[in-house]
């Protein structure tokens, strides 16, 4: 489907990235409400599944472009966001860790096969990629590396395994802080799942690969099983965002009019960086950069688009 570049405000479809960023907006002649440039399409995609009555196991994908004006730009972050976004209708029984892992393995296998094909075709590409992705929960990751920050934990575990999927991002860990912030109204980061005798929170996560150029973990995809009625109510209460229940989108989840779904986004520029072994996102994407980043890149002989 064609992706929207902007949507009418105050419908609940726009993503405020957990309240950390404000959108670029403008006024038009036909609407009293402002029009806002999208940050992501997480909620819009699920709405489309319901609007066009997609059957179970079917879904959509789209080529998404966004502007995040408040982003702190660096070698992997830009004001411009480009993703392959996807969303799929699932059943109640598929809302579990087993199904989430199945989807992650399918996505990662595509990344692996592409990387192998490129390496065979271009002799200048040398960075290896593991055939299998390693799964770990954010709660376990914190227990393994309690003295490290979440980003340092990501670097540590991704360097060890090469490719990792961190499960359960958004729920408060033992130190009363989440591994990373996630919005309350699309990914389910609170539902308790039993793995053997252990209970863990969350049905979402991030795909990370080891970037040997920067010596850091590189996030390629954020994805997850979406909230149902119960997890939405719990997460809104946890973050004191019950006011969102007045929005049309949230009303449809509570009334169970929207289908259950799983979805995510795969960063196009990030993936291109990794596959082509580039050290800066500006080598594969045209954007606006601060003067100090341009000067530093020039010193290192890195041409920015």
Task: Give structural notes.
The protein has 305 residues and is of the alpha+beta class. The protein has a domain at 56-66 and 84-283: Bira Bifunctional Protein, Domain 2 (BirA Bifunctional Protein, domain 2, 2-Layer Sandwich), CATH 3.30.930.10. Helices cover 29% and strands 25% of the residues. It has eight helices and twelve strands. The chain has helices spanning 42-51, 97-121, 138-144, 150-161, 229-238, 248-254, 268-276, 291-299, and strands spanning 6-8, 25-28, 31-37, 59-67, 80-89, 134-137, 163-167, 192-195, 198-201, 204-211, 216-225, 261-267. The strands form three sheets. A seven-stranded mixed beta sheet has the order 4-5-12-11-10-7-6, sandwiched between helices. The protein has a three-stranded antiparallel beta sheet with strand order 1-3-2, with no helix packed on it. Strands 8-9 form a two-stranded antiparallel ribbon. A hairpin with a 2-residue loop joins strand 2 and strand 3. It starts with 5 loop residues before the first strand and ends in a 6-residue tail after the last helix. The mean pLDDT is 93.
């Amino acid at each position: 489907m064609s992706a929207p570049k902007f949507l009418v405000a105050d419908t609940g479809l726009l993503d405020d990235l957990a309240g950390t960023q404000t959108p670029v907006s403008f006024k038009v002649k036909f609407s009293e409400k402002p029009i806002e440039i999208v940050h992501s399409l997480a909620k819009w995609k699920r709405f489309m599944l319901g609007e066009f009555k997609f059957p179970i196991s079917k879904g959509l994908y789209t080529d998404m472009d966004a502007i995040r004006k408040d982003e702190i730009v660096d070698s992997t972050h830009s004001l411009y966001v480009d993703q392959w976004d996807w969303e799929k209708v699932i059943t109640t029984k598929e809302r579990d860790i087993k199904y989430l892992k199945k989807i992650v393995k399918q996505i990662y296998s595509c990344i692996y096969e592409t990387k192998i094909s490129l390496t065979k075709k271009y002799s200048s590409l040398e960075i290896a990629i593991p055939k299998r992705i390693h799964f770990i929960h954010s709660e376990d990751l914190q227990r393994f590396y309690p003295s490290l920050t979440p980003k340092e934990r990501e670097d540590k575990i991704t360097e060890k395994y090469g490719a990792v999927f961190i499960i359960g991002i958004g729920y408060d860990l033992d130190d009363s802080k989440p591994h990373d912030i996630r919005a309350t109204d699309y990914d389910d980061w609170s539902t308790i799942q039993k793995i053997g005798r252990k209970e863990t929170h969350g049905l979402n996560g991030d795909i990370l690969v080891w970037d040997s150029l920067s010596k850091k973990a590189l996030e390629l995809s954020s994805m997850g099983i979406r909230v149902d009625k119960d997890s939405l109510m719990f997460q809104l209460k946890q973050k004191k965002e019950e006011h969102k229940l007045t929005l049309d989108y949230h009303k449809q989840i509570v009334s169970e009019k929207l289908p259950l779904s799983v979805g995510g986004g795969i960063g196009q520029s990030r993936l291109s960086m990794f596959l082509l072994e580039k050290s800066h996102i500006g080598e594969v994407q045209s954007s606006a950069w601060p003067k100090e980043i341009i000067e530093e890149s020039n010193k290192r002989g890195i041409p920015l688009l």
